[in-house]
Specification:
Blueprint: H1 13-39, E1 45-47, H2 48-55, H3 59-68, E2 74-76, E3 79-83, H4 84-95
Antiparallel strand pairs: 1-3, 2-3
Helix pairs in contact: 2-3
Length: 96
Amino acid sequence: MISKTVTIQEVSVEELVEKISNSLLNKLEPHFKKLIKENYSNDNLLSRKEVGKYLNISLVTVHLWSKEGILKPYKLGTRIYFKEKEILKRLEDSRR
């Protein structure tokens, strides 16, 4: 049996946890997005950044509109998504 030994020096526990967490999140994010899209197959989900570009508004405005109930956020872990269909409906309702 071949075994490998890894030695980590001059790294705090917090830094190590952060690096492992970020690495795992980056690896798992595409899988989470796929699962989300499968659960909301008829809905195109947009990230906060995508909503900002879509509506030509800042991320601060996206946050404020979420907080005020203008946009309905959907959370998966620390990630926030919005349904494109709901955004379009909200825009249509605001024109009336």
